Amino acid sequence: MKSLGRNFILFIFLTTTLFAGVSAKLSPEMVTMGEKSNSDELLVHKQDANLGQNFILNYEVSKNELYVGESVKLTLTLKQRKDVSVVDNKFIPSDFKGFWKKSESKPVRESDGAYVSTKVEYILTPQREGNLTISPAELRVASRINSGGWNPTFMPQIQWKSYFSNEINLDVKPLPNNAKLIGDFTIDATVDKTTVNANEAVNVVVKVKGNGNLEDIESFKPNMDDVNVFDEKIELQNDSLTQKLVFVGDHDFTIPPFTLTYFDTQTKQLKRIQTEPIQVTVKGSTNKPQQTLTIKKDETPIDTDQKIKEVKQEGFNPVYIFFALVIGIFIGISIMILKEKQFNKTETKKFSIKDEKLLLIKLLPYKESDEEIRKIVEILEKNIYTNQKEKIDKKVLKELVKRYNIT
């Protein structure tokens, strides 16, 4: 028992001595700022470029004062010392709360003295007015460390360090005069044809280019009383917006100008731009200028009783009345038969799936809600506008026409 007690005391002494030796070799920074275990340590560093850190993160913005919806460029620069190696790293970007992130560039690396520099550019748009803050980005880096002493676990130690970028504060002002758009834009409208047959589709493409909050632009679909108008979903790509519209009418019509009102950041004033109106001529159109019937007034007073007496005295021949009635019935029946034939022809045309242009017009309203129709519409557009001849599954098409009762 005495021998066992002496061995236990000796074990306690050796363990205490080894622990003290390992602790003595830790740097003051690691002791005060990290939580140590046998496998890893966590250190947190606040950004200070003057301390010669192994990693430096820095934010820069193109402007600190801007309007709601106005784009700002944010540049993140990460510098890493060339002589520093890492085991693992985790980058935690800012959440950009209160901003739309419109784009993010690919990282660009370059040598910068003792550092390797990596830059990423963001295009942000503030969603509301007031003082908005871009929170710091964080980089967590894991590297191996040498304990400098005996490690009872025989496992390499890993140390994690966190580096933070600076914080950005922006002063965001409301747009004047209740404007919704801000930037610098151009607008253009192109039409595939201006002379068509009755109920033939006229395709118009509206394009807006420029710098600004393009995502806030609404559909250009106009309200027209006697013309059917179909609008497709707006497409955004970088600094360009595109929307396709289809106009269908049975008489001559005018496509009104497409307008855009925005706040110009250069002139600090509201600006309105628009396209030219487009005149469309429909072959065989029944459009005729309305004629106003003008009745010339006779200033001479009329004796009403005398006129009635004259009509009664003149009278009507019953034979003439009979023939007039027969002729009127004959003409009425002929007109009804003619209209029925024309109606049947029109109905036949509506149900013809061979007329790709008419079929496209009929399917467009269902494009967004039905995936099968969307695929058929894409094939029809390619066949019509790019002269491709891709076949459509007629069985599927007939089922869709029947399902939606397309006439």
Give the termini separation. Answer: 104 Å
Helix proportion of residues, in percent? Answer: 25-40%
Structural class: alpha+beta
Rg (C-alpha, Å): 40 Å
Strand tally is 23
Number of continuous helical runs: 7
Poorly predicted residue ranges: 1-51, 288-314, 346-350
Mean pLDDT: 77
General shape: elongated
- Give the oligomeric state: single chain
Question: How would you characterize the largest beta sheet?
Answer: 7 strands, mixed
Strand-and-helix sequence, N→C?
HHEEEEEEEEEEEEEEEEEEEEEEEHHHHH
- How much β-strand is present in the residues? 25-35%
At a glance:
Helix content is 26%, strand content 35%.
Describe this structure in words.
The protein is α+β, with helices and mostly antiparallel strands. It contains seven helices and 23 strands. It has helices spanning 2-24, 28-33, 304-314, 318-350, 356-363, 371-385, 394-403; strands spanning 35-36, 40-45, 55-61, 65-67, 72-81, 88-92, 99-104, 108-112, 115-126, 130-134, 138-145, 157-164, 168-173, 182-191, 195-196, 202-212, 228-231, 235-237, 240-248, 253-255, 259-264, 269-274, 278-282. Strands 14, 16, 17, 18, 19, 21 and 22 form a seven-stranded mixed beta sheet that branches. Strand 8 (108-112) and strand 9 (115-126) form a beta hairpin. Helix 5 runs antiparallel to helix 6 (371-385). The longest helix is centred in the C-terminal third of the chain and has 33 residues, at 318-350. The chain is elongated, with a radius of gyration of 40 Å. Residues 1-51, 288-314 and 346-350 have low confidence and may be disordered.
